[in-house]
């Protein structure tokens, strides 16, 4: 696994919600190190004051974790990577060389969008009841547990998004981790016109079981462009039409090519939020690697007004130069992908690591006189019982300046914002679930560091 660092730089973090994939960064689900965190905060009451409202509600973390939270809308998004090379599709990066042999698809939200206007995001969207329909079993392997998806390691903690029962959808509804993959694939077609399908039946199952990155359907398996465009409009109007399209093509969503990567929750009281404060998302992030050059995408001229295929470092540089704006979860994941210069390495890591499951992350805001800190689980200041409901409306404040807070800190997992062009990420904790921290660069020595160093991105 080889790494190619982006140059150290700055950016802007606003926590706003996006219908698909911009829930804000967050922290670890299923923390087991509360004793260590309690010790690290001993004697520090004078440093950070935690103020709550007068509500008597005190939901425990266990209660919040073991039930579906009504405060979030379920969603899914996919980090779609494709090989770079000569003859790249229109809209791909214009650079012919670079440290990565793959590019990621990023879409620009419409400037008229109520949420995250003009943000660059990964394709994805809100889950629909049609994604959970048992009718999909006519195209998917109905006899295999979870439609043939690789089993997550026994005993691994699982976020409710993937395991919760949904009685309102009926007893025959698909499992969450199947339906959310269908959601991400459907939204990728709606927003970018890219179909992640395999032939239904034994042929598709064989393709899905093959090692290595996935492949797209050959053009001859697809309808004429005009007909496909009409199907796309139908699916945008009625998500259940995606099943009809797959039946027409005798294909199934390639759920096996999507590897579980992370689970982000939109935080409470996010800074810079506009619109409805109660609109938050519980979003599954998946990684999908295509073993072919970037396919041509197309705009829907509604939610999406531009797209681009970019290397992770290239997208980060565009963000740092303020040519594009990338929401915090996407930016965090772009930095994490900077650990992988090879598509094959990324695919191998993503497919093997997915067997561990993933964390559920929600950040907690700490406001200082000269900026704010987004605390992520594992950080020594992260609350032992974070408010997942918003009913307590916590406000963490301190009279200390950020420089003093950082000098006194030992265990870090936080994003520090001190101005329009002064944003740093500090991580020195061991990642859980066999995951990997964002690629970091030491701000003093400019030398590469390992994934557990305290560094500035």
From TrEMBL:
GO molecular function list: coenzyme A diphosphatase activity; magnesium ion binding
Major enzyme class: hydrolase
EC number: 3.6.1.77
UniProt cofactor(s): Mn(2+); Mg(2+)
Keywords, alphabetical: Hydrolase, Magnesium, Manganese, Metal-binding
Biased composition (Basic and acidic residues): 34-45
GO BP of this protein: butyryl-CoA catabolic process; coenzyme A catabolic process; malonyl-CoA catabolic process; medium-chain fatty-acyl-CoA catabolic process; propionyl-CoA metabolic process; succinyl-CoA catabolic process
Assigned GO CC terms: mitochondrion
Domain of life: Eukaryota
Catalytic activity reported: a 5'-end CoA-ribonucleoside in mRNA + H2O = a 5'-end phospho-adenosine-phospho-ribonucleoside in mRNA + (R)-4'-phosphopantetheine + 2 H(+); an acyl-CoA + H2O = an acyl-4'-phosphopantetheine + adenosine 3',5'-bisphosphate + 2 H(+); butanoyl-CoA + H2O = S-butanoyl-4'-phosphopantetheine + adenosine 3',5'-bisphosphate + 2 H(+); (9Z)-tetradecenoyl-CoA + H2O = S-(9Z-tetradecenoyl)-4'-phosphopantetheine + adenosine 3',5'-bisphosphate + 2 H(+)
Residue ranges occupied by any Nudix hydrolase domain in the UniProt entry: 71-332
UniProt cross-references to InterPro entries, sorted A to Z: NUDIX_hydrolase-like_dom_sf (IPR015797), NUDIX_hydrolase_dom (IPR000086), NUDT19 (IPR039121)
Region (Disordered): 26-45
Family: Belongs to the Nudix hydrolase family.
Annotated function: Fatty acyl-coenzyme A (CoA) diphosphatase that hydrolyzes fatty acyl-CoA to yield acyl-4'-phosphopantetheine and adenosine 3',5'-bisphosphate. Mediates the hydrolysis of a wide range of CoA esters, including choloyl-CoA and branched-chain fatty-acyl-CoA esters and at low substrate concentrations medium and long-chain fatty-acyl-CoA esters are the primary substrates. Highest activity seen with medium-chain acyl-CoA esters and higher rates of activity seen with the unsaturated acyl-CoA esters compared with the saturated esters. Exhibits decapping activity towards dpCoA-capped RNAs in vitro.
Protein name according to UniProt: Acyl-coenzyme A diphosphatase NUDT19
